[in-house]
Design goal:
alpha/beta, Serine Threonine Protein Phosphatase 5, Tetratricopeptide repeat, Rossmann fold, six-stranded parallel sheet, 24 helices, 10 strands, 8% strand, globular
Length: 512
């Protein structure tokens, strides 16, 4: 059979979903005609479908050896490179493809998507605009442009794009979800609720929208519906949650007296600190408790006296029920009025507490500072600032103690100018040591990191700097927290304006 007939047969097999058979036929073609670029390209595509991306690139490269301007192979190679997260190499391929076929509009769409992955959002918008000049009704491109604008914090412009995409395709549930996010950023909370609900009407199992709806309901204080919808966080594909038979999942609906329940960890340290307050309540129900606390927290959890069994892995471990620690508020039907907020509920080990009390002797008022969190946290840019932002505070007649462990080069340079800031760094490795320092302080001034929950759990007085768009746990329009009675909340009036908060905090420090 000649190569053309073999190629036609391979194409039929591909259309029929018989990839393995198509692969055998294409390899026959290569045996007869090693330079057949179409067979090489299709073999690359088949390997791509099977997620053998390195192998697919070899075939695309082989075809390009024989025809360097084979645009289809260049674009396909870019797709494989993207799957391998080699985004900059993929972008070079897209540039080459555009030089060869500048009127092939799909390249601009793919290039824009790749530019998003390397956070070149303005360049992505430019790429989408080229496509939209020719195809102004391409709702997916309009949506992606809106997403870039949202990431750049141009929320009103992003909203315009989402609305246009929805106008073109009213069933575009992803756009309704992102529209809800923008509306929330613009403090149009009721409209955001409606947008999430509309997305869910179209796709009832749309986990992202249901989770977003739950978080917004919690932010608004609607705990009855909020905790239920918050459960959908476990179904989001990029989250890693333990899954068990639904029969053993406990949501407060079964008698657990005398039974063994595994309360599993989830999310960040701050969430575990916030929700471990429920563990004594589980104990009061007469249950035997198994825990897998984060290693950094284990000493503090041990100090709660709840007689739990520790678990590192689930091999050969038997228990009657399971509950994620973040599901305990739902299990106990928590409302704003019934939040268990008796503090402290975490306690520094006595030897560590004594060490820090002795170390920080003296009558001068001692204030802890933390101005940034983990830079890898997805929303860190909205919650963290730099040491220099706190500069006005150092004119106050107090002794300041840093709760930072990691410092940027900029922070290291600036702290050389400060005479009344003491950095402990290595001495506060481990949350029990951090807790010891916090216990020895009079006040902590802090941005929204997991350490703020530790301050609250220890019963330490803290002043919290919040961005304009806050996490659900801090609710809206209030300067106190029903979760942490010792906290005072300072909220940005304008997004990114930390300086105004520092002025307010300095004025309050001067009243001490």
């Amino acid at each position: 059979m000649d190569t053309n007939k073999l190629l036609i047969e391979a194409h039929k097999q591909i259309i029929s979903g018989n990839g393995s058979e198509a692969e055998l036929i294409l390899k026959k073609v290569i045996n007869q005609d090693p330079s057949n670029i179409f067979a090489l390209n299709n073999l690359g595509n088949l390997n791509f479908v099977k997620k053998r991306f390195e192998e697919s690139i070899k075939y695309f490269n082989e075809s390009l050896k024989f025809k360097p301007d084979f645009c289809e192979a260049i674009v396909n190679k870019a797709s494989s490179l993207e799957k391998l997260e080699r985004y900059h190499e993929a972008l070079e391929c897209y540039k080459d493809a555009i030089k060869i076929k500048p009127d092939l509009l799909d390249i601009y769409y793919n290039q824009g998507n790749c530019l998003i992955k390397v956070n070149k959002l303005n360049e992505a918008i430019e790429s989408y605009n080229i496509l939209l000049k020719i195809k102004p009704q391409n709702f997916k491109t309009i949506f992606n442009k809106g997403y870039c604008l949202e990431k750049l914090k141009f929320y009103q412009d992003a909203l315009t794009n989402y609305n246009l995409a929805i106008q073109i395709n009213p069933k575009f549930y992803q756009a309704l979800n992102q529209k809800g996010n923008c509306l929330q950023k613009l403090n149009k909370h009721n409209e955001a609720l409606e947008s999430y609900k509309n997305a869910i009407k179209i796709k009832p199992d749309y986990y992202d929208a249901i989770n977003n709806l739950g978080n917004l309901q919690l932010l608004l204080g609607d705990y009855e519906d909020g905790w239920k919808n918050y459960e959908w966080r476990k179904k989001i594909s990029n989250k890693d949650y333990l899954k068990f038979d639904k029969k053993i999942e406990w949501h407060g609906d079964k008698n657990i007296r005398g039974k063994t329940i595994f309360i599993s960890r989830e999310q960040g340290l701050g969430d575990y600190i916030q929700f471990c307050r429920y563990l004594p309540m589980v104990k009061e129900l007469g249950a035997k408790i198994i825990l897998d606390p984060p290693s950094a927290l284990k000493n503090l959890i041990d100090n709660m006296n709840i007689n739990y069994k520790h678990i590192d892995n689930l091999n050969n471990k038997k228990f009657d029920y399971h509950c994620s620690i973040g599901s305990l508020p739902l299990a106990f039907k928590t409302t704003l009025e019934t939040i268990p907020n008796t503090i402290p509920y975490l306690f520094t080990p006595k030897n560590i507490k004594k060490y820090w009390k002795d170390k920080l002797k003296g009558d001068q008022i001692k204030i802890g500072l933390k101005w940034s969190g983990n830079p890898k946290y997805f929303n860190d840019s909205n919650r963290s600032t730099k040491l220099e932002t706190f500069a006005p505070l150092f004119n106050c007649p107090f002794e300041f103690h840093s709760l930072q462990i990691e410092y940027t080069d900029e922070d290291n340079e600036y702290k050389k100018k400060i005479k009344n800031l003491i950095c402990h760094k290595d001495e506060i490795l481990g949350l029990d040591n951090t807790a010891g320092l916090i216990d020895a302080l009079d006040l902590v001034i802090i941005v929204d990191t997991g350490i703020v929950q530790l301050c609250g759990a220890l019963g330490k007085k803290f002043w919290l700097l919040l961005s304009k768009s806050t996490d659900y746990r801090w609710l809206l329009n209030r300067s106190d927290s029903p979760w942490f009675p010792t906290g005072k909340l300072y909220r940005q009036e304008n997004e990114g304006d930390w300086n105004n908060l520092i002025i307010k905090i300095k004025n309050d420090l001067n009243k001490i």
